[in-house]
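Tokens as discussed.
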């Protein structure tokens, strides 16, 4: 069996139902949640978004929000000042150019305030079923340990190597499975290597 097939099979067995952990009900909520998730955990984001989305259920409402009100709600997640500025600005752009909707092209997404390549990839894959492989800290670490990428590769190179390594139709699912594997088994510190089905592929 090829290494890529072994990895896909093992992750299917370990995490058959891996999916986005950020709570959301629509494209707008997912976009805001992903922007808020920079340098914090999904759990923290999920702890503030219910109040945020109750007060500001769509881009039109958030575009008109007072900065201090948004800052108060998202304060627990850290970097709250810049994140509040970004999600209000982003909502204004959505209202001005996209009728309040989330655009479905990479170029348009990456032009939004606070949105980089990783966020665009998450939105393209989760909202629009576009083939994209978002690379976060878990995905990068697991890819390097499994020798899909080299230790010194930057995030963009890791993404390119993942896209070459796995078939396009699997990228979206694998993104979530890599995150689950990195979060619950192949942790940054003290990975749980007992019974790891990918031990033979691993540099550790
Ligand atoms: S053996 Fe340990 S470090 Fe290597 S892939 Fe498995 S869990 Fe991660």
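Sequence:
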């Amino acid at each position: 069996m090829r290494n890529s097939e072994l990895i896909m099979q093992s992750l299917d067995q370990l995490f058959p139902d891996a999916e986005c952990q950020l709570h959301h009900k629509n494209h707008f909520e997912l976009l805001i949640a992903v922007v808020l998730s920079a340098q914090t955990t999904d759990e923290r984001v999920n702890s503030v978004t219910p109040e945020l989305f109750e007060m500001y259920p769509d881009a039109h409402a958030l575009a008109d929000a007072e900065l201090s009100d948004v800052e108060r709600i998202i304060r627990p997640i850290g970097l709250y000042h810049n994140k509040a500025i970004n999600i209000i600005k982003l909502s204004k752009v959505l209202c001005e150019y996209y009728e309040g909707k989330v655009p479905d092209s990479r170029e348009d997404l990456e032009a939004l305030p606070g949105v980089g390549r990783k966020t665009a990839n998450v939105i393209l894959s989760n909202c629009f079923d576009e083939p994209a492989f978002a690379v976060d800290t878990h995905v990068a670490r697991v890819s390097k340990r499994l020798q899909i990428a080299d230790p010194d590769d930057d995030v963009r190179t890791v993404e390119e190597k993942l896209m070459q390594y796995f078939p396009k139709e699997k990228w979206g699912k694998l993104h979530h499975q890599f995150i689950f594997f990195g979060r619950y088994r192949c942790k940054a510190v003290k990975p749980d290597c007992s019974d790891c089905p990918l031990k033979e592929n691993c540099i550790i």
